[in-house]
Amino acid sequence: MHRRSPDGRRPPDPDKGPDAVGLPDSCPRPQREWPVSTRSVRSIRRTRPALRVAGAGAALLLALSACSSSGSDSGSGSGEAGSSGSSSGKLSGTVTVFAAASLKESFTELGKEFEERHPGTEVAFNFGGSDSLAASITSGAPADVFAAASGRTMEIVTKADGTAGTPAVFARNQLEIATAPGNPDRISTLKDLTRSGLKVVLCDESVPCGAAARKALAAAGLDLTPVSYEQDVKSALTKVELDEADAALVYKTDVRAAGDKVEGVDFPESAEALNDYPIALLKDAPNAGAAKAFVDLVSSAEGQKVLTDAGFRKP
Amino acid sequence: MTKPATTTPGGVGGGPRRTRLRRGTRAVPVPLLLPALAGLAFLLLPLVSLLVRAPWRDLPEQLASAEVWQALRLSLVCATSATLLSLLVGVPLAWLLARTEFPGRGLVRALVTLPLVLPPVVGGVALLLAFGRNGVVGQWLDSWFGITLPFTTTGVVLAETFVAMPFLVISVEGTLRAADPRYEEAATTLGASRFTAFRRVTLPLIAPGVAAGAVLAWARALGEFGATITFAGNFPGRTQTMPLAVYLALQYDPAAAIALSLVLLAVSIAVLAGLRDRWMTAS
Q1: pLDDT for the residue numbered A61
Q2: Which biological process annotations from GO are given for this protein (chain A) (predicted)?
Q3: DSSP β-bridge partners for residue A313
Q4: Which domain, by its residues, includes A289?
Q5: What pTM was computed for the model?
Q6: B112-128 average pLDDT score
Q7: Contact: B229, A243; criterion CB under 8 Å
Q8: Torsion angle, CA of B70/B74/B80/B81, rounded to 10 degrees?
Q9: Is the pLDDT of residue B68 over 90?
């Protein structure tokens, strides 16, 4: 609020946000910095704080004095300016992507690709359990894009009316058994995991990989008591990497990302528990234009290649 | 170090209202009063909000589940065990730091307080590397005695002790430094061994400080999350303590998480209030 006050003529309803998509035609196209909207100031702070904030502030002041007639300082307005105002290559600012922990490797690669394609942009990731990410988004965390590891977690955000448009499934993931390198316990089927004396960790059922594990075990008619229900898939994998557990049910992509630190064992029941990965542009995205371009990149042929290389299935 | 240790929880328990009022009506400088009130509001507001937003109507139903009580019982058992373990080794350690001279004592003291500043998750990873099945010490425990600590209730106690003991050590060491060593010296000149002097003279002398430190350690252990979930994992009834249950419940059922938090809050307040008299004598 404070940032907006220097201009006495500020619009009556600056927080109209989503309804005020796009700059009205009466408003002159602002400076290059314009897509750095007020709200993204927070997320940019990570890099060159003083400069960026000052820059954004200056751009805002300029814009406010130049264009006083409308609710142009709404966060999503800037996005339209970015994407339509200049058909390509004019994106800038930071795209904040909240993505499921299992997307870490492939999205980091796609983020670099994106930054190369659109100089002046920066992709900031927040990887974590899809549920905690969904919770942060619904409680107002400044994010542009949400990529979840399950339809259910995406639903948390769509139900809270947090997405712009319908989420699209961009990848699917399959479970695999992760064991120590060389598979010392000779695990070859899901049933082997129920052997006594074997320490198995699963994800907690509240996170997607745990829900999928439960589905797969139910499909196989098995009753498995793990030593721990881990809070996310990476912690489950870490327990195997550190050799604290003998096996874990994790995603194929995680096994691949871990390289030779673990060995993956496929099992047929995993087909019963495929996880859909939906991605969506968020309604309150501070940098919607660049965010949309990132979503497009993920669904493009190139994005799909990166994802399948990481072990994902096509949707 | 005793001062902050003893006054903080005393403040939580709420100082005697009479004193506050009397001082309030006399001259409290505004530059002190305003920030103090702001600080108080900042500390209390989240707790009040928890009460305001609590799903009071569904509360009995939320708390009826066996899992809640299982988690609470485990939390209480583990926090108490961790406190006892901390007392057993922490008090002698504090004595060593306060009453003896040895090279590198300052460094040792700094290292003892390290878990205070270490992110608990890092502590959990460090514990895995030390006491894990493949850890520096853990591999011998496993191959010689067949003991594995991760994923066990003992693991929870160890993780909580690791995080909570520094509170006790610092508190007791501060009390020891404040206590007059001449009583011990008198006891030894009268023929008591140094250990007898410690047991019969020093320990009663610093009892309030020990109690204060123990309560601090207990409270810290009760709230322990990071090191526990990293080192001991999460399994209902075995290693799932209340904070873990709250965290996981938050993922799919925030109302349940709030209900669990209320229970934990109530227990903490009850214990701190119950021990307030001890606190008062300590300070």
Answers
A1: 43
A2: molybdate ion transport
A3: A172
A4: 75-172+277-309
A5: 0.70
A6: 91
A7: no
A8: 150
A9: no
List, for residues A150-190, the tens digit of each pLDDT value: 888 899 899 888 888 889 999 999 999 999 999 999 999 99
Here the tokens at position A261 are 């630190």
Q: Please list every residue in chain A whose beta carbon sits closer than 8 Å to the beta carbon of residue B133.
A: 243-244
Check A201 against B233: CB less than 8 A apart: yes
User: Is residue A15 one of the residues assigned to a domain?
Assistant: no
Q: Is B115 on the interface with A (CB under 8 A)?
A: no
- Chain A touched by B155 (CB under 8 Å): no
Residues B59-282, CATH architecture:
Orthogonal Bundle (1.10)
How many other CB atoms sit within 10 Å of the CB of residue B162?
A: 26
pLDDT tens for residues A34-57? 444 444 444 444 444 444 444 444
What distance in Å separates the CA atoms of residue B133 and residue B146, rounded to the nearest whole number? 10
Predicted ipTM of the assembly: 0.74
The full set of domain ranges for chain B reads 9-53, 59-282
Say if CB B197 and CB B187 are below 8 A apart. Answer: yes
Confidence category of residue A78, pLDDT binned at 50, 70, 90: very low
**Distance between start and end Cα atoms, chain B:** 12
- Return the residue matching tokens 């129920």: A194
In this structure, the answer to whether residues A197 and A244 fall within a common structural domain is yes
A125: domain CATH number?
3.40.190.10
Same domain, A146 and A261: no
Whether residue B156 is predicted with pLDDT greater than 50 in this model: the reply is yes
Structure tokens at A56: 């954004």
Both A190 and A254 in one domain: the answer is yes
Per-residue tokens: B121? 């998750």
Domain count, chain A: 2
Contact between residue A254 and residue A134 where contact means Cβ atoms under 8 Å apart: no
Cβ-based contacts of A199 with chain B (< 8 Å)? 151
Q: Does residue A251 share a domain with residue A179? A: yes
Look up tokens 């660049």; give the residue. Answer: A290
Q: Which residue has the tokens 């004019």?
A: A90
- Domain shared by A161 and A291, yes or no: yes
